[in-house]
Amino acid sequence: MRLRGKIVAAACGSVLVIATAHSASAVQSTFVAQNEAHQRFTTLSPELRAQLAGHWFDAAAGKLTVAVPDEKTAEQARARGINAVLVRRSAADLERLLGQVRKLIGNGVPGVYSWGVDVRDNQVDVTVNTSSRNHDTERFLERVRELDGVNVVETKSQQRQQSGTVQTGSPWWPGSETYCSVGFAATDANGGKHFLTAGHCTNDANQAAHGQTGQQNRIGTSNVGGTRSVNAPEGDMGVVAVTEAGWTLSPVVNTWGQPAVTVTGSAEAMVGDRVCHSGNTSKWQCGEVKYTHKSVDYGGGLIIEDLTFTTACSKGGDSGGGWLLGDKAVGLHDGGPSQCVQNPSDDELSIFQPVNEALQKWNLTLVTGAGTGDTTAPTVPGNARSTGVTSSSASLAWDASTDDVGVTGYEVLNGGTVATKVTGTTATVSGLTADTAYSFTVRAVDAAGNQSKETPAIAMRTSGDTGGRTFTNDADHPIRDFQVTISAVRSTATGSAASPITVGVDATHTCQEDLNVTLVAPSGRAYPLLRTPGGLYDCHPFPAGRTFSVSPVAGEAAGGTWTLRIGDNGPGDVGVLSGWSVTV
Questions:
Q1: Which residue of 253, 345, 459, 501 pairs with 20 in a disulfide if CB–CB is 3.0 to 4.6 A?
Q2: Residues 410 and 427: beta-carbon distance below 8 Å
């Protein structure tokens, strides 16, 4: 039964090889879409960015998704090919709420070890280790739970900055201390050689840095002059000067036996990104970014702000290792639970320090290369063909392409403009005009961004409205806890809407009782189709291909934009709106 709740580098020989991450096959499948999401975000106007309450990469949809406060802003985002979800709290609301939490935490509260904004759930999360709580903790929890929009997560574990014992791999040693991992190679304005790593590995000023056990084969000096290490609220980042003869810097990633990757630049990770890291203990691991700009209290008065949390596994000795978004450097490993588990909970996530902050602080330039060296384009997709049309969509299929490394996806072009991207060999282009001729082509893309030649043009014509007044939207939209999913169709029908109006919903969800489903007419009038019950209830799956009927008010116009809104008002269940239709 469910009670409906309140929304609330490795040193190898004489070459310094940077231990960073590699895109696994699972990561490669989203590489192109992920890059596209980052590029789209950089093109948003300052005015639109100012309206956002958060943004993230939605791997299921393969798109940038933004949280917005109103339908007008949502329409602006969608016009740029971006998913948009309506949320209750603006960015300013969340920042004010986080400020209240920070004020209550002050210099630290026993057991409270992380806090920050969860952009996907439009709330502030606070994580508490219940095994170390006391009276001050109880007072804090009592007050913070009074804040609408704060979610308290209780756990019996504790994050910590990582160290470890000597193992085979690619460590560097700060003096005679336990090893850490090398992050990214960088140079200064005078051409001086350095590498970035964790600040808690470089605390001691002018400390010798070694590339082998037994304090042999010195690399250089850590934290020169005592001004090149930070392990405080500002961040966890440090610099080692590479001063010894025989050491050279390389942008090549240590991928632990996986195909080669070369660092080509740096980036800022966003929620939903697939990222990977390389460390001396856990080796090469990948996962999803769950939170950005989150704070951690490691105890002993050590609070660090603006860190990134991911689901990737990490262990002691990984500290300072590099994190990558594809072939872009994004972070330096900071800490975690020092264990590897499947489907980690929020108290089992790995943490990294954004790398751009370190590069900017010490005016360093990342050492980069020309990428993976993969310059071979995939073959042209074969047998491209039409598989059907509606008045507002066109469906296509083709035979798979081949590539020397691997195809990661396909792009469907409408007259030279990319209309949609998919990883399989079928696609549906939505939002088309009825009774209109279109020409589509398809091309394949690999992980290095190489594109095949386009297929011969596929001429298609959408169906007209004669004999029917049904309009569809076949785009996929994720249904997430405590968010509103919105999908729209454009009706070209004339006159008044039929009575009843018929709505077909193709969706999957594990608990239909969590959902509120509403049809919004072009006039703005809302027609409820399904409402969440109150109190205790059992969960049942949302029926496949469910149809609803609703009687409109007299004179409701049939033409214009009809919108389907699905609000998920319960926790722990997810789903996807695969498509819907409205007959007017």
A1: 253
A2: yes
Amino acid (one-letter) located at 203: N
- 344 shares its domain with 364: yes
User: In this structure, are 102 and 169 located in the same domain?
Assistant: no
Dihedral sign for Cα 75, 79, 80, 83, please.
positive
Separation between Cα atoms, residue 508 and residue 505, nearest integer Å: 10
Sign of CA dihedral 264, 270, 276, 278: positive
Residues with Cβ within 8 Å of 335's Cβ and at least 6 positions away in sequence, in order, are 159, 160, 161, 162, 236, 296, 298, 314, 319, 350, 351
Residues 210 and 219: beta-carbon distance below 8 Å: yes
- Comparison of pLDDT for 166 and 474, the residue scoring more: 474
The model's pLDDT over 370-420, given as tens digits with 9 standing for 90+, comes to: 655 556 788 999 999 988 777 788 888 999 888 766 676 788 999 888 888
For residues 491-513, give the mean pLDDT: 87
**Residue 133, both tokens:** 């709580």
Q: 223 and 358, same structural domain?
A: yes
**239 & 308 share domain:** yes
DSSP state of 557: B
How far is residue 114's CA from residue 162's CA, in Å, rounded to a whole number? 16
**CATH of residue 399:** 2.60.40.10
Give the end-to-end CA distance of the chain in Å, rounded to a whole number: 38
pLDDT classification of 211: cutoffs 50, 70, 90: confident
**What digits encode the pLDDT tens for the residues 344-367?**
777 788 999 999 999 999 999 988
Number of domains the chain contains: 4
Count CB atoms within 10 A of the CB of residue 43.
9
Tokens matching residue 197 = 């790593």
Q: Per mean pLDDT, which range of 173-177, 226-230, 292-296, 521-525 is the poorest?
A: 173-177
**Do both 211 and 99 map to the same domain?**
no
Q: What is this structure's pTM?
A: 0.54
Of the listed ranges 169-173, 270-274, 456-460, the least confidently predicted one is 169-173
Angstrom distance (rounded) from CA 90 to CA 72: 14
Closest by CA to 398, choosing from 415, 417, 379, is: 379
Distance of CA 322 to the CA centre of its chain: 18
Query: Using an 8 Å Cβ cutoff, are 295 and 303 in contact?
Result: yes
Alpha helices in 385-479 (DSSP H): none
